[in-house]
Amino acid sequence: MSILADIPFSLLELAPMRADSTVSNTLQDSLRYAQYAERLGVNRFWLAEHHNMPGIICSATSILMGFIAGGTERIRVGAGGIMLPNHPPLVVAEQFGTLASLYPGRIDLGLGRAPGSDPVTSLALNRDNQRAEHFPDEVGELQSLLGPREQRQNSNYKAVRAIPGEDTNVPIWLLGSSLFSAQLAAERGLPYVFAGHFAPRFLFEAVALYRREFTPSAVLDKPYVMVGLPLVAAPTDEEAELLSTTSKQRILALIRGQEMWLKPPVYSMDGLWTQQEKSYVDSFLSLSICGGPATIKHRLEVFVEQLGVDEIMFTNDLYDNEHRLRALDILMSVKQ
């Protein structure tokens, strides 16, 4: 049996949109995608928070979570993540307390300290550009608001209660692409997610730091590591390489400051980018799991053997929705 059999597979959804589609159709496609993932036994379906990015339809993360959770039955639904500097902790606690009350035992709260946007948009979301510096304190405040009231007596905000939210104990995860959140997750005894799907540089260093410094807590007695990876799965390596050009064009648009609509695959990227841009895109996607079933299985087995992760979360941004569903079939088949 493959070493992948016992590794939960999960999905990170950015609600990618084609220029010829609509927001409504894009979100309905995301729901169908989540429902299909649930039938296949995918563990979690998380939605990212990004703003002012045409082609990525996931700015209202908690609202989309309710939409997905309401259209599914068992799969865990979460934020991957809520960018805490954009939101007062009380509002986050109330929103996720409401979700946890509507869908008990199915809601996850991943937290990040980046804005999920460009500096101008970040200013529009939050007038205090120092909020990220208070991330550790605000994580603690959020944990307190979601916990039992009797444990809040020493809190600076003990008179403020999240209704709903209080005592829902929504599981909190810390997300990061550097060492900061790895250190904080270790100190707080929280599960940690590394954003390898877009920032692979510090992966091994961050995971090693988290495991080395981990302190058991009331919510977790040993380290738990999940890593995000880009997925491009197809029946053959050649087709997967072709389909991967959709993601490559998207990252190219990102670094150029252009709109990020999903674009159809192209047979060659030659002429679409400079050598410097190619190097940047290749680095951005360097952890991509791309290929046919045998290649996907081999690459994932090597990755798990090297890093010993507890769970893997995949992005799966293909141009054709049927190809996205087919990729899930291929992904889940490699666990056998």
From TrEMBL:
GO terms for molecular function: oxidoreductase activity, acting on paired donors, with incorporation or reduction of molecular oxygen. InterPro entries: Bact_Lucif_Oxidored, CmoO-like, Luciferase-like_dom, Luciferase-like_sf. Coiled coil: none annotated. Residues 18-310 form the Luciferase-like domain. SUPFAM superfamilies: Bacterial luciferase-like. CDD domains: Flavin_utilizing_monoxygenases (cd00347). It comes from the Bacteria. One of its GO terms (cellular component) is cytosol. Gene3D superfamilies: Luciferase-like domain. To bacterial alkanal monooxygenase alpha and beta chains. This is Luciferase-like monooxygenase.
